[in-house]
Amino acid sequence: MEAKVKLARRICEVQPSATLATDAKARQLQAQGMDIIGFSVGEPDFNTPEHIVAAGAAAMKAGDTKYGAKRGAELKKLSAEKLKRENALEYNPENIIVSNGAKQSLYNIMQVVVDEGDEVIIPAPYWVSYLEQVRLAGGKPVILPTNEETGFKITPQQLAQAITPRTKLFIHNSPSNPTGAVYTPAEIQAIGAVIEKAGIVALSDEIYEHLIYSDTPPLSLAVVSPGLRKQVVTINGCSKTFSMTGWRIGWAAGPDEIIKAALKFQSHATSDPAAFSQAAAAEAYKDLNQSAAAVGNMRRQFDMRRKRMHSRLNKLPGVTCLEPMGAFYCFPNVSGVFGRNLSGVSIGSPMNFCNAALEKAGVALVPGEAFGSSQHVRLSYATSLELIDKGLDRLEKMLNEG
Ligand SMILES: Cc1ncc(COP(=O)(O)O)c(C=O)c1O
After folding, report:
1. 364 C-alpha vs ligand 1 centroid, how far in Å?
2. pLDDT confidence of residue 16
3. Which atom, in ligand 1's list, is nearest to the CA of 239?
4. What is the model's pLDDT at position 24?
5. Relative to the CA of 100, which ligand 1 atom is closest?
6. What local confidence, expressed as pLDDT, does residue 177 receive?
7. pTM of the entire structure?
8. pLDDT value, residue 4
């Protein structure tokens, strides 16, 4: 008889990433010859800026292909300088850990902060991996719902009411994936005050900080008061800012004991990221003029696409979309379509809507269920204006013709 492997309970309780699953389904249909327009993937479509690629290639040619600890020291120093320059946060390089993407930075912190049964407060809609990373650490996610009325943002009162003696961690993400919500400095101050008073740890995921489409500069949660510096871990990285998703460089900055523990954890999991990736990331933080020009150009293009997608979504029958102010996603409410039948698919959930969009219209979207919403779908506008129009034409046709 063939032996059946019994997998560990911890992995059986975890859901696979819905974003990657939707993308895989779209690719499969594409491989079968179907013409699919993809709005599902969360990565910039631009090439990594030339000066950054050149630095990575030069490092590789120069033999920077060994373990990455040496490069790590340089990148930590440059990240500390970035935090001081852009976020008014002073950290020593020892207070920074460089990881294989911000995803690993977050995972490290969850693993060293969250104990079995600890409560972790997560505003919804949330980025898919927060919930599962909390579960992998044995924690209990406590979800704070938000909706269009509050601009998809929690209130300080809501947070204060959710905190119990078992609360260990709060996850803050602004600009938000998937809603595009951006907290104002006053809102961040108010949330910071609640966290400080409660003495809990907070993760501030600021990975989309350079993709904000208003004149209000972002405010880092850790900067709100000197006391908060002992409680907040700031997460950032190169993936979204410099269109470097494949290079896998993210980092976390925070209190001594948390970062030391995360270093210990990572040393047994993956060690440092690839040395040449770190060299490329270092260049992104060193050549400020070229990097600022490249980031500014990407932001301008994202902004045009954002406006186009947002206005076209609001013209679809049964669909309403709040204006996203950051990141590169629209998060429309499709509940006005529930109860309809679209080309034989009866629509009663975001998942049904996405299935109809993919199978009938050839448009890949991510269902809100993945982000803790039963009314929305997520579309990424990290694609050309031409494809945005083509995809929206198809959705329009599907919704008008039924
Ligand atoms: C909110 C948020 N945090 C973190 C990450 C992870 O970024 P990285 O690619 O650097 O691991 C993502 C990626 O989609 C994200 O959307």
Report:
1. 20
2. 74
3. 10
4. 81
5. 11
6. 97
7. 0.96
8. 85
- Residue of the nearest CA to atom 1 in ligand 1? 177
Which pair of structure tokens corresponds to residue 44? 């910039």
Mutate-to-test residue for ligand 1 from 207, 235, 241, 331, highest number of ligand atoms within 8 A of CB: 207
- Ligand 1: residue of 129, 152, 243, 248 to mutate (most ligand atoms within 8 A of CB) is 129
User: What's the 82 CA to ligand 1 centre distance in angstroms?
Assistant: 19
Q: What is the pLDDT, as a whole number, of residue 132? A: 94
Measured in angstroms, how far is the CA atom of residue 348 from the centroid of ligand 1? 30
pLDDT tens digit sequence for 5-55? 999 988 888 877 666 777 788 889 999 999 999 999 889 999 999 999 999
Counting residues of the chain whose pLDDT is more than 90, the rounded percentage is: 88
Calpha distance 57→224 (Å, rounded): 39
Cβ neighbours around 314 below 10 Å, total: 14
Q: Could you give the count of Cα atoms lying within 13 Å of 112 in the half-sphere of its Cβ? A: 24
- Confidence (pLDDT) at 20: 72
Residue 257 is predicted with a pLDDT of: 97
- Name beta bridge partners: 275: none
Tell me, in angstroms, the distance from the centre of ligand 1 to residue 47's CA: 18
Report CA dihedral (249, 251, 305, 363) to the nearest 10 degrees: 70
Among 335, 318, 325, CA closest to 375: 335
| Positions of the chain with pLDDT lower than 50, given as ranges | none
Strand, coil or helix: 236: strand
Rounded to an integer, what distance in angstroms lies between the CA atom of residue 59 and that of residue 40?
Answer: 33
Euclidean distance between CA atoms 131 and 126, whole angstroms: 8
Q: Amino acid letter at 117?
A: G
Residue 327 CA: nearest ligand 1 atom is: 16
The dihedral region occupied by 114, where left means phi > 0, alpha psi between -120 and 50, and beta the remainder, is beta
Token look-up 């991510």 returns 366
Measuring from each residue's beta carbon to the nearest atom of ligand 1, which residues come in under 6 Å?
A: 42, 101-103, 127, 173, 177, 205, 207, 237, 239, 245, 250
Look at ligand 1, atom 16, and give the residue with the nearest C-alpha: 177
Distance CA 160, CA 380 (A): 32
Residue 104 CA to ligand 1 centre (angstroms): 9
Pairing mode of beta strands 250-253, 232-237:
antiparallel
Query: Mind listing the domains of the chain with CATH numbers?
Result: 9-47+291-401 (3.90.1150.10), 66-287 (3.40.640.10)
